[in-house]
Amino acid sequence: MEEKDIYQELSSIRQLMERSSKFISLSGLSGVLAGIYALLGARFGFRAMENLEGLGPNRPDVKDAVVFLTMIALAVFILSFITCYWLSMRKAKKRGENVWNPVSRRLLGAVAVPMITGGLFIAILLMQQQYFAVASACLIFYGLALVVASQYTFNEVKWLGFCEILLGLLALNNPGYSIIFWAIGFGILHILYGTFMHFKYER
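^ thats the sequence. predicted structure below, dont judge the formating
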């Protein structure tokens, strides 16, 4: 067997092992679109944040602004999830794979722990009117979920997770700029990450 044939054989074996242990149907384009959704949400969120400045937490207008911000965050999350699922399903079909397989189930199971914990933690912060820490908690728990997810998908996801955690810590230390850190983490970083992944794995 020639050296070229050996290389091709090893490459095929590596791809088969990767498909059986890694969820590689994630679409880079979904990251770009999620980032765009987040930036649009942040644009509306800036106005709501203006209503929080210098006001006590028990003011009705402050509570209305917090509810509005929460709805924006949920809308961004739902749109991003639907987009990610649809594009991943389309990519999997092109590759002749099933998007719902043992690897994707393990991925979702692992991600569910930090995501659900983060959601409950944020709900407690809202009930206790600790609004300054909400954006930070979103970034930190999402970053932790990405680090865990990287065990079952592309390794680059781990570095995105570390960046989200760092931004979350910065947001906690600079609560007056939390919406900016949120926009950078969920918006700009997702667009950069998605673009990189698209050109690296999908071109």
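Helices lie at 3-21, 28-50, 60-94, 102-127, 134-149, 156-173, 178-201.
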